[in-house]
Amino acid sequence: MKKLVVDDVIELQQLLARYAVGMTKGDIEAVMDVFTSDGTYSAFGDIYPLQDFPTLVAAAPKGLFLVGPPAFELDGDTGHGQQTLCFVEQTTHDMRIGYYSDTYCRTTDGWRLQTRSMTFLRKSGAQDAGRPHDPTRPAPTGR
Known about the structure:
Elements: H1 6-25, H2 28-33, E1 35-43, E2 46-49, H3 53-59, E3 63-67, E4 71-75, E5 78-89, E6 95-107, E7 110-121, E8 127-128
Parallel strand pairs: 1-7
Antiparallel strand pairs: 1-2, 3-5, 4-5, 5-6, 6-7, 7-8
C-alpha cells in the first residue's frame, strides 16, 4: 500500500464531510460541489449524472447522514475508497445503514468525488444497491 500524503488525506476527509453535512442540511449546491463536473451517484439500480442531483436529492428522505472515517487509496491524482454510512430519517428516526464506494480525482479546484455508489446493509444480511422499482425515486435523465 502506498503511503498517503497527509494534506491529501485531510482534503479528502473534508470533502466527504461536506457531502454528509450538505445532504443533512438539504444543501444541494454543497453536495454538487464535491463532485467533478462529470460525477455520478449510483443507487437503486441506476446511475445519476450530476445534472440529476437536484431532483434526486429533493426526492430523498430528510435526516442525518452520519458517516465514518473514509478508507482510501490514492495513486497520484486519482484514487478510490469506501466510507460507512448510517442515515437516520428525521421524522421517524428509522435508520438505513450501508457504505459508499467512491472514486476520486484531483482537479484544479482540489480533490473531488468522481463516482459514489451506495450499498445498503439489510436486516436479512443481504447487501444491495437499493430497490430499482422504488416509485418515489426519479429516473436518471442520462448524460
